[in-house]
Amino acid sequence: MVAASEIRADPVRVSIRDLEKRFSQDVVALRGIDLDVEEGEFVSLVGPSGCGKSTLLRLVAGLDHPTSGKVARPGIDDVPGSVGFVFQDAHLLPWRTARRNVELLLEIQNIPGEERRRRAQEALARVGLEGFEDAYPRQLSGGMKMRVSLARTLVLDPQLFLLDEPFGALDEITREKLNDDFLELTRSSGLTTLFVTHSVTEAVYLSTRVVVISDRPGTVVDEIPVPFTERHRGLRNTPEFVKTCAVVSETLYRGMGER
Ligand code: ADP
Ligand code: MG
After folding, report:
1. Does 172 share its domain with 249?
2. Which range marks the domain in which residue 245 is found?
3. Nearest C-alpha to atom 24 of ligand 1 is from which residue?
4. Counting beta carbons within 10 angstroms of the beta carbon of residue 69, is it exposed (0 to 12), middle (13 to 18) or buried (19 or more)?
5. 190 with 246, same domain?
6. 223 lies in some domain
7. Same domain, 167 and 258
8. What is the pLDDT of residues 106-130, one digit of tens each?
9. Ligand 1, closest atom to CA 56?
10. Residue 55 resides in a domain
């Protein structure tokens, strides 16, 4: 007989079953959502505005509760700090430097000063911000502020990374650069990532799988596997990339009832 402790850990990091979220009699945000995310996957959620993407992410984070159905995070449910959440706005404290912003959550956990400083510096280096530790938010560009926001979450060593349209407000070039750096970062650390975006191109470029959500009440229209193993600047112009984007777009229209 095999002891429970010897059985290999379940590779599923997020498991959603028949999930419904209702805000009122009239507002059913999500219905019948089934979704699994495996360890190390990068899954994007795309769908029309108001279809419940942010709601779904909040439910996965445990920031809100489902009306019915289940959300589980096998293996990490009871591990503090294992879920990292990044919002569209960087939400930095203007009176704190980049490093002190990244240290914030470590302070709340009473981590000693020396260790805080070291970990914040490491996290800033991981997002390409060496040399900007002492800059204040007003001295940083939009892309750099978002990098600080990523560092602030990474410093806690999350195993599951949830991001709600983090690069949506950035110009295209900044966004593409951040996409590449972010990919490198998530792949090199084996992070499991659930990423909300309204950009089909961004979803296809970043993900191992794209999940398309329908108009409200949001439900999964289809999941599209992304076939590429390598990412590079020219990929977006290849016929296979364009074709994958077209499949995602078609699925989006299908989820909007071709309205
Ligand atoms: P998305 O992120 O896809 O744009 P949201 O998850 O923000 O969509 O919202 C889905 C639907 O649920 C919208 O119709 C929104 O108005 C509604 N909603 C979201 N949060 C609340 C809330 N706290 N109370 C009432 N309705 C809400
Ligand atoms: Mg949203």
Report:
1. yes
2. 39-82+159-259
3. 23
4. middle
5. yes
6. yes
7. yes
8. 998 899 999 999 999 999 999 999 9
9. 6
10. yes
Q: Which residues surround ligand 2, an ion (CB under 5 A)?
A: 54
Q: Which atom of ligand 1 is nearest to the CA of 165?
A: 2
3-state secondary structure of 192: strand
Protein residues whose CB sits closer than 6 Å to any atom of ligand 1? 23, 27, 29, 47, 49-55, 216
The backbone torsions φ and ψ at residue 245, rounded to the nearest 5 degrees and listed phi first, read: -60, -40
Q: Is the domain of 63 the same as that of 151?
A: no
Residue 212 has pLDDT above 90, yes or no: yes
HSE at residue 92, side-chain half, CA atoms within 13 A, is 29
Q: Do 256 and 173 share a structural domain?
A: yes
pLDDT band at 74 (very low <50, low <70, confident <90, very high): confident
The DSSP line for 66-87 is -SEEEEE-TTTTTSTT-EEEE-
Nearest ligand to the C-alpha of residue 29?
1
**Do residues 222 and 258 share a domain?**
yes
Interval between CA 212 and ligand 2 midpoint (Å): 14
CA 50 to ligand 1 center in whole angstroms = 6
Average pLDDT over residues 189-206: 94
Judge whether 67 lies within some domain: yes
